[in-house]
Structure formats: C-alpha cells, structure tokens
Amino acid sequence: MMRAWLLLPILIFSFCVTFPAAAQDSKPPVKDEIIRIDTQLVDVPLAVVNTKGLPVKGLAATNFLVYEDGKKQEVIDFSTTTAPFEVALLLDTSGSARNDLPLIKRAARDFISNLRPGDRVAVIAFNTEGKNNQAYAVSEMLSPLTGDRTALASAIDRVRTSNGTPYYDSLLQVADKVFNQRPASEFRGRRALVALTDGVDSTSAGDFLAAKEDFERIGLISFFIQVDTRDFFEEALLGDCETATRFSSAQIRRYYRTISSKGARIEKAVNFCQLGDFERLAISKRLYEIADSEMQELAKTSGGRVFPVGDFSEARNAFKNVADEIGTKYTLGYYSSNEKRDGTYRKIKVELKGLPAGTTVRAREGYTAPAN
After folding, report:
1. pLDDT beyond 90 at 250
2. What is the pLDDT of residue 268?
3. pLDDT at residue 11 in the model
C-alpha cells in the first residue's frame, strides 16, 4: 500500500513534464532561433570626450541613444571602458623603415606594455621572400591573438624589412587570419586594427575595397599611425631611372585609374623609365592622397582615429595615444529592428543623454546588413 502511494507522485510528475514537451514539437529548434538572432546583433564601439577633449568615463547604457537609418533602437548589450580588447598590430617595415627598424620595434614593445592585462594582441609585419631568383614582399602573421607578453616580445624581435609594401594584403590577412573566428563574448565589438604605416601600397594582390568590406563585416575599429614618408620616397624617385626608386606596375595602374575616373585624357606610360620627373612627382602625390583618404575613411566609419606623425621617431608617443584611446572605448549592442537580410548599408547615429553641453561622441557610423 505504501509503495503504491509513493509511485503516484512520480507518475503525475512524468505526465506533467511530457505534456508541454509535446506542445513544443511545432516550434523551431532553440538552436536555430539563437543563430538567427545572434547574427543580427550590431556592435557599436564609441568614445566620449568633454569640451577639453578628455575622455569621459563611468557612463552607463542609459547615457546613450542609438538610431539605425533614423529609427531608434533598443540597447540590449553594453560594455564599459574597462572591458578588454583584441588588437591586430600591423607594422609597415618597407621603404624608409629599413633605417628605422629599431625605432619601430621599440615603439611596438611600448605599445603592448601600455595595454591592459586582459587585452590580447596579434602581430603582422612585412618580410621579403625569394622565389625563382626573384625577391618579393609578403605579409606575415608573426603571432596570433594572445595575452602572453613574452610571446609577443618574441614576435616583435622577428620583425624584418621588406622590398615592397603589401599593405592591402596585410589588411585582408587581419580579417582572414587574425579575426577569422567569432569573438568571445567579452570581445564583442571590441576588436581593433592598429597600423603603423604610410598606407601607400605597392605589391598587393588584393585591393582596398575588399579589405573595407571585410572590416565592415566584422565590425573592426581602425587606428592608424600615419607616417609621412613622402619626402624620403620622392628624393629617391627622381633622376636616372636605372638607379631611382621605382613605382610598381600596380601603383602606376592605380594612378591612371584615378586620373581616368576624373575624365582626364592622358597618355599612359608602359614602364617607369618612360616617366619624366614631373610625371613621377604627380604619381607620387596622387598615391599619397589615395592612402590618406583610405585611412581616414576606415578610421571615421569605424569610430577609430588617424594619428599623423612626421617620422618613425614620433611613433612611440603616437602608440601611447592609441593605447589610451583603446582604454576609453565603450561598446553598445542592439538587435536591428530591420530584420531584412538584404545586404544594404545601414547608417548608425549615437546621441548622448544626461551629459553636459559640449560633450561629444565618436562612434561607428554604419554597417552592411547580411544578405540571404
């Protein structure tokens, strides 16, 4: 009698738990729902400064309003300035950098030491390889993302110089090799490129538009320490074509594409020795203009910054400014109210609430929605 009574609650409990389970058979699997929602989460890195240009810390999600294409969105995720970052450190060691490699290495070491204990860093640099008796420049990932400062110091020690500038290829490598995996929750919206470069590409197989699309897709914040190498480059550019520093064929083609897009009609030289000094200077000027425009575009649209420096001796202080900037970043996240997967570009606007007049925010300006 007692045993039958003890079994009764067990039978009732079994009936209760199996009934709702049967009712759930008509709903989509939970796993599918999570994947669908998570892919629409939009991360927005941002920084806030006061009227003196100093960072404002200690803010909360309630201090921000976010709009997508003019429509207010609900902030559902927020990271403070103390949250860690993942950083791809890109070191351009071509051209004039050959004489300043010790300065570059020291500045890179200082940058890593100025980051916070929870931050992780990957190191990318240029090198020269040989094939079929020809030397060519390549982009190398010397260290994957890691918080091991000893391993990073070893990677910096292995930085070498190159005989060309595979700048676009290195940007693509940042997206394809450094940030090819989905970030852990603490790094969502907190991934950055920090590049020491003049931005003038000479040997890449890839191009800027491909790198830009990749950066927008993964939501990467771009910081550039823009080194002014133009005087050094142009000094070696003039004179006898056999001994002068030459443009690559890719650089010459890039120049003529920009000229033709403006409607100019100009006879195209097929090789460097057909260019006079005036044409060489015109090409150089345009290539540096392109580099500046591209860096400004990546930085502005991602919520990053460009830090111009006169030469590599100023890189050390610029790196410190970048490290300080990273330490002042907030990140907010929202699920877009526009659920269309149409591949369109969506504009983002962030406004401040409850802060003194003159306080300003710099944030990611938009993203490309997933397609299909």
Report:
1. no
2. 64
3. 37
Residues found in the chain: 372
Q: State both tokens at 364.
A: 């990611």
Stretch among 6-15, 136-145, 227-236, 271-280 having the lowest mean pLDDT: 6-15
Nearest-CA neighbor of 91 among 131, 45, 129, 143? 143
The four Cα atoms 52, 54, 60, 63 give a dihedral, to 10 degrees, of 30
Q: Could you tell me the two tokens for 27?
A: 């709903």
Share of the chain above pLDDT 90, in %: 63
At residue 103, what is the residue type?
Answer: L
> Does pLDDT of 129 surpass 50?
yes
Q: Where are the domains of the chain?
A: 86-326
- What's the chain look like in SS3? CHHHHHHHHHHHHHHHHHHHHHHHHHCCCHHHHHHHHHCCEEEEEEEEECCCCCECCCCCHHHEEEEECCEEECEEEEECCCCCCEEEEEECCCHHHHHCHHHHHHHHHHHHHHCCCCCEEEEEEEEEEEECCEEEEEEEEEEEEECCHHHHHHHHHCCCCCCCCCHHHHHHHHHHHHCCCCCCHHHCCCEEEEEEECCCCCCCCCCHHHHHHHHHHHCCEEEEEEECCHHHHHHCCCCCCCCCCCCCHHHHHHHHHHHHHCCCCCCCCCCHHHCCHHHHHHHHHHHHHHHHHHHHHHHHHHCCEEEEECCHHHHHHHHHHHHHHHCCCEEEEEECCCCCCECCEEEEEEEECCCCCCCEEEECCEEECCEC
Q: Are 293 and 199 in contact (CB under 8 A)?
A: no
So what's the architecture of 86-326 in CATH?
3-Layer(aba) Sandwich (3.40)
pLDDT in tens, 182-201: 999 899 999 999 999 999 99
Contact criterion met (CB below 8 Å) for 134 and 83: no
Residue 54 dihedral angles phi and psi, to the nearest 5°? -90, 145
